[in-house]
Amino acid sequence: MEGAATHWSSDQVQQAAAKGAKLSGLFDEKMLKPVLDEKGQRKMEEVDQWQLVTSHAARRTFATYLASKGIATRTIMGMTGHKVESEFNKYVNMNAVETALRVKELAGL
Predict the structure, then answer these.
(1) Which residues of 68-92 are buried (b: 16+ CB within 10 A; e: fewer)?
(2) CA–CA distance, 98 with 108 (Å, rounded to integer)
(3) If DSSP states are collapsed to H, E and C, what string results for the chain?
(4) Residues 74, 24: Cα–Cα separation, whole Å
(5) Which residue(s) pair with 36 in the sheet?
(6) pLDDT value at position 46?
(7) Which of 33-42, 63-72, 91-100 has the highest mean pLDDT?
(8) Exposed/middle/buried for residue 36 (C-beta within 10 Å: 0-12, 13-18, 19+)
(9) pLDDT, tens digit, 9 for 90 and up, residues 38-48
(10) Which of 37, 68, 98, 102 is the most buried (most CB within 10 A)?
(11) What's the sign of the alpha-carbon dihedral 14, 55, 25, 47?
């Protein structure tokens, strides 16, 4: 059926978020990720930063970005599926947006 929506599994969404993060070139640093070794002991493993980007982080960043551009809260809530504005306001990190915009301004970017 032409124009039909494609359903993605949560694994497919997660893979797409990681791939997008890798392709963006914004997540090239190495980070430490806690993992369990074969004995069940916690250790730290070095991984590429893009591997730690989650679909949840991408969704939250998208919503925060739209809010920073002045898109109406109710419009964004319709996209994210939030029903209660107070919960949405906890989800969208406007302080991070304001800080990032200030840093960008100070850096002359």
Answers:
(1) beeeeeeebbeeeebeeeeebeebb
(2) 15
(3) CCCCCCCCCHHHHHHHHHHHHHHHCCCCCEEEEEEECCCCCEEEEEEEHHHHCCHHHHHHHHHHHHHHCCCCHHHHHHHHCCCCHHHHHHHCCHHHHHHHHHHHHHHCC
(4) 29
(5) 42
(6) 93
(7) 33-42
(8) exposed
(9) 999 999 999 99
(10) 68
(11) negative
Q: Cβ distance 90 to 80 under 8 Å?
A: no
Answer for the pair 91, 60: CB distance below 8 angstroms, yes or no.
yes
- What end-to-end distance do the CA atoms of the chain give, in Å? 45
Q: What is the mean pLDDT of residues 74-81?
A: 91
Dihedrals φ, ψ of 32, to 5°? Answer: -100, 135
For residue 52, CA distances in Å to 9, 30, 40, 45, 82 come to 18, 10, 21, 12, 24
Q: In the prediction, which pLDDT does 44 show?
A: 92
